[in-house]
Amino acid sequence: MSARVLHVVTNVAHYDDPEHPTGLWLSELTHAWHVFEEHGFEQAVVSPAGGAVPLEPRSLKFPNSDRSTNAWRADAAKTALLENTPSPDDIDPADFDAIYFTGGHAVMYDFPGSEGLQRIARQIFERGGIVSSVCHGYCGLLDTRLSDGSYLIAGRRMTGFSWREEELARVDELVPYNAEEEAKRRGALYEKGMLPFVSHVVVDGNLVTGQNPGSAKATARQIAALLSST
Predict the structure, then answer these.
(1) Edge to edge, what strands does the sheet with 98-101 contain?
(2) For residue 72, which of 108, 45, 91, 97 has the smallest C-alpha distance?
(3) Which of 122, 168, 196, 222 reaches 20 to 30 Å from 94, CA-CA?
(4) Can you give the pTM of this predicted structure?
(5) Angle made by CA atoms 135, 12, 139, in degrees to the nearest 5
(6) What is the pLDDT of residues 83-137, one digit of tens each?
(7) Is the dihedral of CA 114, 24, 91, 183 positive or negative?
(8) How far is CA 56 from CA 15, 61, 135, in A?
(9) Which CATH number fits domain 4-229: 3.40.50.2000, 3.40.50.880, 3.30.1330.30, 2.60.40.10?
C-alpha cells in the first residue's frame, strides 16, 4: 500500500494591504508533488477554508517559475485541484501518513488559526506519521498543540523562512509578524542555513522542515525517505 501525503495550501490572496497580492508559492507545492509522484505516493490537498487557492504572483515569474510550475499550470487536472479544495472538516487524518504545509506569505494569515489543520497535524504526529513544512508553512505549526497541551514544535529542531530572508525579500514591513521569533517563543529550537535562500532542511524525528522555496525538493526527499523506510 502506497504512502499518502496531504498538502496544505492557502486561501488568502493578499497582505493586510489589498494592493499587495500574495498566495501559494507554487513551486513549494509542485516540487514536492513531483518527488512524491516519483515514489508512487497518493496525494491530496486541503486548505483552511476550502475552495479556491490563489497563487503568489512572484512565484509565477522568472526566476521563481520553472519547468515544474509551468507544467502544473498547463495541466488542467492539476490546476483543477486548486480551484475547489476540501476543508479540514472533509479530511480524516487516519487516511494520511504525512502532512506537508506549503508556503507563501499568505499562509501567515490563515494557517495559524485553523483548528482543523491543527487537529489533522496533531493526530498524524501522535500516531507516528510525518508532520512537515517548507518556508512559511511552519506558521501552520505555531499554534498546534499535542494532546498534553504542549506545542508540537516545543523543544524540537526545526527551520522555516528566516527574518533575514524577509528583509532581503523586502516584505518585512508587510508581513503580520516575525514567524522566526514566534517559533522561538513557543520553544522551538529554530535553525537556519549559513546563507539566505539556500536549501536547508532540518529533520527531528517525524518533524521535517525546510527553510525556503529552494528547500522544497530536499524537504520532500527527506519525507519520502522516512515514508519509504516504514
Answers:
(1) 42-46, 4-8, 98-101, 130-134, 207-210, 201-204
(2) 45
(3) 222
(4) 0.97
(5) 35
(6) 999 999 999 999 999 999 999 999 999 999 999 999 999 999 999 999 999 999 9
(7) negative
(8) 11, 10, 14
(9) 3.40.50.880
